[in-house]
Design brief:
7 helices, elongated, binds zinc ion
């Protein structure tokens, strides 16, 4: 099992493709080694991440939760926590992976960030599309580096770097039940942005 590191807070995180997978993880909690101290038997549920619902008001069925390696009541864990995230969730963003995928595709095809964002039908601040786009542009090198072991980048005639990255995602993860961004996060256990 691999773990994603949350760059901001340096919390280890496990990314789940579905609620079913998350429930299965919970069911095996007592048999699962802690990602910090590698001990088995001391993991317990530790509530949901705060602000999650607020940040993800456009998403339908997503949760993120914390797990605690208990050192209380004579438990011998390390006292640290880690988080469980759903692949549909994008860190520090109120858009889910599906909406983000749609937004990025629209920007690449139309060149108009604001118009693309308005099609998402969500709470809107006029600076949000530019911020989100900038995050994507900054993340591109890491996204491509993660995709290359899966498949070679497609040839996009006269494509700009952004359209090549999206086409690469589509090539690697198109045609699955998850959208390519959620599939990227679940398969690679790393955050897209
Ligand atoms: Zn531990």
């Amino acid at each position: 099992m691999s773990w994603a590191d949350d760059g901001e807070t340096v919390i280890k995180s496990r990314i789940y493709a579905s609620e079913k997978e998350l429930d299965e993880f919970y069911a095996r909690l007592k048999l699962t080694p802690c990602p910090h101290c590698n001990q088995t038997g001391s993991l317990i549920k530790h509530g949901f991440l705060r602000g999650y619902d607020h940040e993800n008001q456009l998403q339908k069925t997503t949760r993120a939760a914390r797990v605690f390696c208990s050192n209380r009541n004579r438990a011998s864990g390390c006292g640290r926590t880690f988080s469980l995230s759903m692949a549909e969730r994008i860190r520090r963003l109120f858009l889910g992976a599906e909406s983000l995928w749609l937004f990025l595709q629209l920007v690449v095809s139309t060149g108009n960030k604001l118009a693309a964002f308005r099609q998402l039908d969500g709470p809107l601040s006029d600076s949000a599309p530019y911020r989100i786009w900038k995050r994507f542009v900054r993340a591109q090198a890491a996204i491509r580096a993660a995709l290359i072991p899966l498949c070679s980048p497609p040839v996009v005639p006269s494509g700009n770097p952004e359209s090549v990255t999206l086409a690469h995602l589509q090539k690697a993860f198109g045609g699955q039940s998850l959208n390519p961004i959620a599939a990227f996060q679940a398969k690679l256990q790393t955050f897209f942005l």
